[in-house]
Write a structure and sequence with these properties.
Number of helices: 4
Structural class: alpha/beta
Largest sheet: 5 strands, mixed
Distance between the termini: 38 Å
Number of strands: 8
Radius of gyration: 19 Å
Helix content: 10-25%
Strand content: 25-35%
Shape: globular
């Protein structure tokens, strides 16, 4: 009987021990706004962040993304390096790329994208839309708390 219980535990342990992701949903729209300016997660959380563009305007005219940056990133300096459509409005410069923690793809009206990550360090991580000119109003902060 003990062997049977042990076997049952071992077969179900990965399911029991697997952590469900913390789900974060942020919307953006044709008025160049995110529905939230801040959210919190904890070091070690599995995070599933979904960005939904609830607007109607297509990607080519009014695309948005969400780019999470390392703490203390100088937003205007970073955004100035994101003006090239051929790089999907992400920096081509290797030093600037190192400042990106995670990013969604750019989305037109009605589209969504989910990114997955596990924060490893506590801190305040800014997030922005890198479409030219959008960062001035489309930004917020992800706070990563200590466990």
């Amino acid at each position: 009987m003990k062997k049977l219980l042990l076997l049952a535990f071992l077969l179900t342990a990965p399911v029991v021990l697997a952590q469900a992701p913390v789900k974060v949903e942020i919307t953006c729209n044709d008025q160049m706004t995110y529905n939230t300016k801040a959210f919190e997660v904890t070091v070690g959380d599995k995070v599933a962040l979904t960005l939904k563009n609830v607007g109607k305007i297509p990607l080519k005219t009014m695309g948005h993304n969400l780019v999470i940056l390392k703490p203390d990133t100088q937003i205007p300096m970073f955004a100035a390096k994101c003006g090239d459509a051929k790089n999907d409005y992400l920096p081509a410069d290797a030093e600037m790329k190192k400042l990106i923690v995670k990013n969604t793809k750019r989305l037109g009206g009605g589209e969504s994208d989910t990114i997955y990550f596990i924060p490893k360090e506590p801190g305040k991580y800014p997030f922005i839309c890198t479409t030219p000119g959008h960062f001035s109003v489309m930004q917020g902060v992800m706070t990563v708390k200590e466990k």
